[in-house]
UniProtKB/TrEMBL annotation:
Top-level taxonomic group: Bacteria
GO MF term set: S-adenosylmethionine-dependent methyltransferase activity
Protein name per its UniProtKB record: Methyltransferase type 11 domain-containing protein
Domain Methyltransferase type residue range list: 46-138
CDD domains: AdoMet_MTases
Amino acid sequence: MKDLNEKTDNKNFLARYLASAPVALALIRAMECRLMDHIPFANPILDMGCGDGLFASILFKGKTYIDCAIDRDETEVDHSYKKGVYRDIKIAEAEDLPFDDESFRYVLANDLFAHIKTPRVALNEAWRVLRPDGYLCFTVPTLVPRFHLNVFTDFISGAASQNLISLFNHNIKSYFRLNSMLKLQQWTKLLKESGFRVVHHRKYASLSAICIQMITSFYLYRGSIYKKAIGRYIPFPEIHEKIITPITSWVLKSFYDDDSYDGENYLILAKKID
């Protein structure tokens, strides 16, 4: 297996993500693409919680296709089909996968399990559909939402009104919908109980990067409106890519490059064991 601690990025994931998504999504997702690019995914692959398919379309571009994907949101599934990276997509819950036992060699679940109220059930399902010696690759945040809020509100309290802070708090709680915020030891325990062994884990996303994500989350509302109306976050992608993307890439490069080993999120690779 490749060196999974490698940090090189020859594919410019940050600029590619910024061309299609707001900063609040692009910065952290680009880091995840960079890390997962060193994982030797092998078909057949399942993407649990594929969303609109943007993450997979950027990560797997020029590499391979993904055999199957699931998401609970019918609208997101419709967007995913248009990305052209999946052979099949089903509307389904992660806790009840519509696939036979031992169907996949890899299961990908990017930023999914923290949003599920019963991650143990979803882990059991991932184990069920994986072949013997198959791998589950997923990412999770490790900070509780309250800590995120305290960091940011302390930062802006001297310059912002209480109304602005209240709006920010509502924004984060309603948009990110984090239900299962666990530490690495807790995820390791859950994985072991579900029949997995952790073979690699890696922290990423410095506290500074997380604060940037929180600050720019205001723009997710605007991007979400565009996405509902026209199916994408960016209304004029060609102009955005030529003018806005180079500027935001330059501004965010130091945060992107500071991919701290003491970061606030985890990439976990776990192997199915008998």
